[in-house]
Please model this.
Amino acid sequence: MSSQDIPEENLPAEQEHAHGAVSVADEKNPFADPGLPPHEHRVQDIDERAAKRSERTVALLFTVSMLATVGFIASYVTIDVAKSIYVFPIGHISALNFALGSCLGLALFCIGAGAVHWARTLMSDVEVADERHPIEATPEVKAKVMADFKEGAKESALGRRKLIRNTMFGALALFPLSGVVLLRDLGPLPGTKLRHTIWSKGKLLVNMNTNEPLRPSDVAVGSLTFVKPEGLEEDDHEFQTEIAKAATMIVRIQPDNIKDKQELEWSYQGIVAYSKICTHVGCPISLYEQQTHHVLCPCHQSTFDLSDGGRVIFGPAGHALPQLRIGVNEEGYLEALGDFEEPVGPAFWERG
Ligand code: FES
Model:
C-alpha cells in the first residue's frame, strides 16, 4: 500500500523541510540540481494499526534475540563437549558448536533485523537535504545539530514506544553475557601448576636422545646432555605440557671449577643439572661453550654461567637458571633429589 492508494484527507500534513536548491539546467550550469523527489508516506505513517503491527514485530525480534542469548548460555552449560549430531548437508558436527553458533547468530540477527525494521517502518523517513558548509562548525550550526539530534530522538519515538525501547535495552544488555560466559574457556586457573614440574625425589635422569637412564660415567667432561624425568614418554597426552617445564640439561665440570658452594652441593662428582628453559621468555637453551661453561639462549642471546649457579652474565634474562639437585641411586643411576626449588621459565617468581 503506497500513499497513492490513501485518501488525501488521511495523509499527514507535509513537513516543512529544505529540499535543496533546485535549479534548471542551462548553458552556464549544465549539471542542474533536480532536488529531492516528492515524499511518499508509508502505511505506518497514516495507519496507527499498521504502526502497532510493526512495533510488535520489532519487539518480537528483540525478544527472540533475548531468548537466543539465554539459549546460548544454556547450551554452553548443558551440552556435552564430546556430543556430535548429524546436520544435513554438513554431516556430523559438534552439537555444542552447532548450538552456540546457532544461538549467537540468531541473537545478533534479531537485534539487527529489529533495528532495521524499526528504522524502515516507524522512524521518520523524510529525506532532508543539507547544504555543504565549512568544516569548522559555527556555534549556530552546533546549536542546530543539537536541535536536530533532539528532534531525531523525538522522531525515533524511543520515549513513546516503551515496548520497543525496553525490549531493545533488554536484548542489548543480555547479549554481552555470551562473551562473559566464554571467559570460562580461558581457565582453569593454573593454581600452583607453574611452581612445580614432574621432577621428584628418586626420578631417574633419562637421556632425551637414547631414552636410557644415565650413569655418571655416561657424562663426559665438556659434554651437554638433555634429560627428561623417568616415566615421561613422547606419546603421553601431557608430554608437551610437562616437558615444557621439566626439560633439563646436564653438564660435567671439574668440581674445582665450580664457584658456587650450593651448586657444588647439589651436583654429583661435578655433574650439574639445570633447567633448559630460558628465564627470559622461555626459549629452550641449546648452545654450550665448554671452555667457559657458559650456555647461550639462541632467542635473545642471554648467557648463563653454569659454573657459577647459572648466573646471568649477559642478555635480557632477569634470573639465574634453576638448578636441579641430583645424586646417584643404589643401582648407580643419576636421580633427582627433588623438584626444582623455584619455578622454571620466564621470571614467574616475580609474580608468585
Ligand atoms: S628467551 Fe632466552 S634470551 Fe630471550
Observations:
- The helical segments are 43-46, 48-78, 95-121, 139-155, 162-174, 177-182, 239-246, 261-266.
- The chain has eight helices and 13 strands.
